[in-house]
From TrEMBL:
InterPro entries found in the cross-reference section: Alanyl-tRNA_Editing_Enzymes (IPR051335), Transl_B-barrel_sf (IPR009000)
Keywords linked to the UniProt accession: Aminoacyl-tRNA synthetase, Ligase
Record-given protein name: tRNA synthetase class II (A)
Coiled-coil segments: none
A GO molecular-function annotation: aminoacyl-tRNA ligase activity
Length: 132
């Protein structure tokens, strides 16, 4: 059975307290929040973004996308209400989904590497000399 400590070692940090720096609605009506820090992995370099939640005193936001813009962490998702600027919030990433994304991403590196090794062994195999 995994304990909280061993789970965090496998998944990394998945929850923390943050401060809301900015909050607005985008053109689709989704809530966009800029926070002072993050525990979420943004989408990029072959690994999908983490999903999770952002909880404040005034409501909850389901985080659907994380991105970085000019060294700012941008959370996008559907929110129950606006997030007051300067308020503390609590963010939590879905650890099970993160683990799945991590394994698929790592597997994407291992398969081509294994293929190269097998191909190299096939083409560089030397048949033993047989007496004629």
């Amino acid at each position: 059975m995994l304990t909280r400590r061993s789970t965090s070692m496998i998944l990394g940090i998945t929850e923390t307290d943050v401060t809301v720096l900015q909050d607005y609605k985008d053109h689709t009506g989704d809530c966009v929040a800029i926070l002072d820090q993050t525990v979420f992995y943004p989408q990029g370099r072959g690994q999908p973004t983490d999903l999770g939640g952002l909880i404040t005193v005034t409501g909850r936001s389901n985080v659907r996308r994380i991105s970085f813009l000019d060294d700012e962490v941008i959370y996008t998702g559907a929110a129950d209400s606006t997030l007051p600027i300067g308020d503390s919030a609590y963010v939590t990433a879905n650890g099970v989904l993160r683990r799945r994304h991590t394994l698929l991403h790592s597997g994407g590196h291992l398969v081509p590497t294994g293929h190269r090794c097998i191909t190299w062994m096939f083409w560089n195999y030397r048949w033993p000399c047989r007496p004629m």
